Amino acid sequence: MNKKNITLVINEKKHELSVFPNELLLNVIREELELTGTKYACGIGECGACTVIVNGAPILACLTLAVAVDGSEITTIEGLTKADGTLHPMQQAFLDHSAVQCGFCTPGMILMGKALGDENPGLKGITEADINNYFKGNLCRCTGYTSIVRAVMSCAHEGK
What distance separates the 2 farthest-apart alpha carbons in the chain? Predict the structure, then answer.
């Protein structure tokens, strides 16, 4: 099988890559680019641990071929922290509200929160039911979701 040359802008950095046509975005991110914050868990799109943001929309990297996102802008959890180490408001909210337990689902959850905030700047009028609905594809086995919802709601109350 011949490799295909693609270009991805990941966390604002351009990457020229040569990938197999059947190579998953998740594997390219983790193995080729060594951005291991994006997690491999179920491998079938059931848990959301592999969530990344592609051209402004959250997607599951375990179900997405790398060639399908050629030319796209991608944000992983590593791309949220500023160069000076300042955390994104959603990352800080997860810490402040103890929404991190084992941490395995956390990157996908935080990126979903960011995507929700990007779709609804300041999270104006957002309800707990809205958050639960938006996050329905992201599974957490540790927190029971209460602290996750509380973290996202805190960003709404603070207009982040």
Answer: 52
Contacts of 85 (CB under 8 A, 6+ apart): none
Per-residue pLDDT, 159: 59
Matching residue, tokens 């180490």: 85
Q: List the domains of the chain with CATH numbers.
A: 4-76 (3.10.20.30), 89-158 (1.10.150.120)
DSSP conformational letter for 142:
S
Residue by residue, DSSP assigns 87-124 as PPHHHHHHHHTT--SS-SSHHHHHHHHHHHHHHSGGGT
CB-based contact 28:66 (threshold 8 Å): yes
- Of 37, 131, 108, the C-alpha closest to 78 is 37
47: nearest Cα among 105, 121, 130, 128: 105
Residue 101, pLDDT score: 85
Contacts of 104 (CB under 8 A, 6+ apart): 39, 41, 49
Pick 74 or 102 by higher pLDDT.
74
Alpha helix ranges (H) inside 15-104: 25-27, 89-96
The confidence score (pLDDT) of residue 6 equals 98
Cα–Cα dist 116/113, whole Å: 5
pTM, two decimals, is 0.93
